[in-house]
């Protein structure tokens, strides 16, 4: 009985760790371990921020938490859209069962 | 004939298997760097404002370091690209022993000097790691 209880507690703790998500950002909305697809602010200082006329994206991905590849840097995202000035940034997080995760940085500017 | 004792045994076996599977997943989460602890102990355990989903076996991801961008230029006044300064720190763990080493510098001032930059406009970084044993944290500053 006690053994089963300890195992259940261990399983709950493990699931709780998993549910916290495997990425880190200044602003992190609640994310789903089974499925997540959302956008959130990366740059959260909005004082007198312009929106900008264009947006650039750059992504990185992780498969099974074993292999991670990609370039989601500000520089690459800005270059992809040909921006000369950056005004702000958001990000998009996508996850399916921890098997495939994608992190996209979206920069806004002119 | 199915008795309450038989049901209890089967339920116990199922919970045991479930616990083993989740413990395995938790171990994977730990080694992949998903669980974050104070610095040290793992090539995937580092801190930065933005960390994309990591990989335990192999990881090579670039991400933003600077998150405040209002009015940051990405080109110089003459239309050419910004200058780039780059520095890295390295990390090595001796397998099967709790011995690890970290060396080199990746601070903004030295990276800017390396790139002959007088005004820094923004910064990115790249994290590279193999098998949780060897890692590099590469700082890239952009400016003019």
Describe the structure using short key phrases.
heterodimer; A: 110 residues; alpha+beta; 5-stranded antiparallel sheet; B: 144 residues; 2 domains; 2 helices; 33% strand
Summarize the helix and strand pattern of chain B as letters. Answer: HEEEEHEE
Cα-atom radius of gyration of chain A: 18 Å
Structural class of chain B: alpha+beta
User: Which two chains touch over the largest interface?
Assistant: A-B, 58 and 49 residues
- Strand order of the biggest β-sheet of chain A: 1-4-5-2-3
User: What is the overall pLDDT average of chain A?
Assistant: 84
Number of domains of chain A: 1
Total count of domains of chain B: 2
The counted number of beta strands of chain B is 6
Return the string of H and E elements of chain A.
HEEEHEE
Strand proportion of chain B, as a percent range, falls in 25-35%
In angstroms, what separates the terminal alpha carbons of chain B? 82 Å
Overall pLDDT metric of chain B: 83
Broad structural category of chain A: alpha+beta
Overall number of strands of chain A: 5
- What general form of chain B does the structure show? elongated
Q: Which percent range fits the helix content of chain B?
A: 25-40%
Describe this structure in words.
The complex is a heterodimer of chains A (110) and B (144). Chain A is of the alpha+beta class and 110 residues long. Chain A has 2 helices and 5 strands; from the N terminus they run H-E-E-E-H-E-E. A 5-stranded antiparallel β-sheet of chain A has the order 1-4-5-2-3. In chain A, a hairpin with a 3-residue loop joins strand 2 and strand 3. Chain A is elongated. By secondary structure, chain B is an alpha+beta fold. Chain B folds into 2 domains: 32 residues; 106 residues, no CATH class. Chain B is 25% helix and 33% strand. Chain B has a 5-stranded antiparallel β-sheet with strand order 1-5-6-3-4. The longest helix of chain B has 29 residues.
């Amino acid at each position: 009985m006690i053994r089963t209880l300890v195992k259940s507690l261990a399983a709950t703790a493990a699931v709780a760790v998993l549910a916290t998500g495997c990425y880190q950002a200044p602003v992190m909305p609640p994310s789903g371990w089974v499925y997540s697809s959302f956008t959130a602010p990366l740059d959260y200082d909005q004082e007198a921020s312009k929106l900008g006329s264009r947006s650039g994206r750059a992504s990185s991905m992780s498969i099974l938490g074993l292999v991670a590849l990609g370039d989601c840097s500000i520089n690459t995202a800005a270059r992809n859209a040909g921006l000369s000035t950056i005004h702000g940034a958001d990000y998009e997080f996508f996850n399916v069962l921890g098997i495939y995760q994608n992190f996209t940085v979206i920069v806004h500017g002119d | 004939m199915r008795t309450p004792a038989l049901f209890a045994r089967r339920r116990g076996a199922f919970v045991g298997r479930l616990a083993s599977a989740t413990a395995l997943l938790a171990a994977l989460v730990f080694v992949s760097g998903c669980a974050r602890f104070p610095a040290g102990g793992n090539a995937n355990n580092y801190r930065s404002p933005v960390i994309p989903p990591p990989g335990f076996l192999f990881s090579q991801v670039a991400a933003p370091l600077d998150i405040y961008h209002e009015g940051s230029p990405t080109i110089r006044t003459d239309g050419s690209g910004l200058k780039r300064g780059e520095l890295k720190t390295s990390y090595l763990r001796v397998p099967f022993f709790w011995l690890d080493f970290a060396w080199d510098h990746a601070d903004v001032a030295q990276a800017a000097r390396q790139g002959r930059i007088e005004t820094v406009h923004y910064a990115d970084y790249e994290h590279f790691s193999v098998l949780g044993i060897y890692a590099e944290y590469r700082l890239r500053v952009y400016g003019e």
